[in-house]
Amino acid sequence: MKAMTYEKYGDSGVLSLTDQPVPKAGPGEVLVRVRYAAVNPVDWKVMAGGLDAMMETVFPVIPGWDVSGVVERVGIDVPEFAAGDEVFSYARKDFVHGGTFAEFVTVPVRALAAKPSSLSWGEAAGVPLAGLTAYQTLTRLDTGSGDTVLIHGAAGGVGTFGVQIARALGARVIATASETNHDRLRELGAEPVSYGDGVTDRVRALAPDGVDVVVDYVGGVLDTTRAVLREGGRHASIADPDVTDAGGQWIWARPDAAGLRALADRGKLRVPVAETFPLARLADAFELSRTGHVHGKILIHVSDE
Predict the structure, then answer these.
(1) Cβ neighbours of residue 47 under 8 Å, at least 6 residues apart?
(2) pLDDT in tens, 195-205
(3) Is 111 a member of any domain?
(4) Does residue 259 lie within any of the structural domains?
(5) Of the candidates 97, 214, 201, 198, the residue with the CA atom closest to the CA atom of residue 153
(6) Which of the listed residues 18, 28, 55, 137 has the most CB atoms within 10 Å of its CB?
(7) What is the pTM of this model?
């Protein structure tokens, strides 16, 4: 099969299009023929060695954790799926090796769900990691009807899903973002405020008694969180480990089929797409992601079959 791989840690220059053996579907696994994969910043951070102290790496590495595709075959003891099923997944494994930027990928059943019919193949590939991150931060904080939620970084990939999910859970959402993104956030049901100097006062003007829940998707905002969180409020971050010292939760999304099904059951999520690249141009997609100024998911189109 064709796959984008790297033999050593580095920048996008270590990527190359290579021929790799089709992976075997072991017990409890499914082999997926990839239609689309999606780029997340963690992909190129892992490629640079950013998780070397945390996860084992087996070279050559095929990067990528988000995927939509069709089941090619199933391993032993997989009654949930059959060849031909349309699926999507946050396909992170327990070590860094066989990812989604390839024609085929194996996925543990615990991380696989039926593709939502309401989403295109590309949109479905853009949901898993960012969508689960937003879903897990909000649900672990017991976000629900009547809560006022502050979302730091609401215009980013995770934040966009966070706004939609929090609204679907019945919460009021205050969202920090640059002014250029305010109209888009209003369309999603949020009350946007500009980040930067004075953000605490702007949030307090909308929620004088404080907010019930704060989710941080950018980092570096713990002081603001403390200043606007009401007594007894809950907060979490995906970017700042110091949040635990302040009574919050530090969350790194887990692959979770049930969570994906919950996202699918909520109806059509809005999945903005910034740009789509062919598999061979993964390096260009990574470089676009590195700019940090992308509004929407970066997709990799692998196959129409």
Answers:
(1) 6, 9, 10, 11, 12, 14, 15, 61, 63, 286
(2) 999 999 999 99
(3) yes
(4) no
(5) 214
(6) 137
(7) 0.96
